[in-house]
Amino acid sequence: MAKYYLDACIWRDYYENRSDRFRPLGEWALMLINEILENHEIIVVSDMIILELEKEYKPIVIEKMFSVASEKGLVVRINYSISQLQLAMKISKQRKMHFEDVLHAVLARDYNAVLVTRDKHFDELRDIAQIKKPEELI
């Protein structure tokens, strides 16, 4: 069973139905989420994703955002360990990258999930986790 770790930007694209000048980002995010659910695959959510979303949304809104998948029992909430935090810190210092981005990659790797994002910073973490854009998966 495939697992997907959706970055906060993907959840925002979906929830706000965002688009840029040329691409229907929200539509693509929704299509991916629907495909994951139709295939009875798993969406992995970490505390770090929730913390990032809490910068923009209240907890009740985040709960509503996740409800599309959690109602079907296809959302798995994961925690991170001290060793994962330490590894992410080490890599973020070595590569001069945001700690949170590195932690997302480490978590996706450790939980055998595809990290879905459109953030270009993650390109530097392809040696740690499998990273895809929503449109590459639909």
> Which bin fits the share of residues in helices?
40-55%
Number of helices: 7
For this structure, the CATH topology is Rossmann fold
Shape-level CATH architecture: 3-Layer(aba) Sandwich
Output the radius of gyration: 14 Å
Strand sequence of the main sheet, in spatial order? 3-2-1-4-5
Low-confidence stretches: none
Element order: H for helix, E for strand = EHHEHHEHHEEH
CATH homologous superfamily classification: 5'-nuclease
Characterize the biggest β-sheet. Answer: 5 strands, parallel
CATH class category name: Alpha Beta
Indicate the topology.
Elements: E1 3-6, H1 8-16, H2 25-38, E2 42-46, H3 47-53, H4 59-70, E3 75-78, H5 82-95, H6 99-110, E4 114-116, E5 131-132, H7 134-137
Parallel strand pairs: 1-2, 1-4, 2-3, 4-5
Helix pairs in contact: 1-2, 5-6
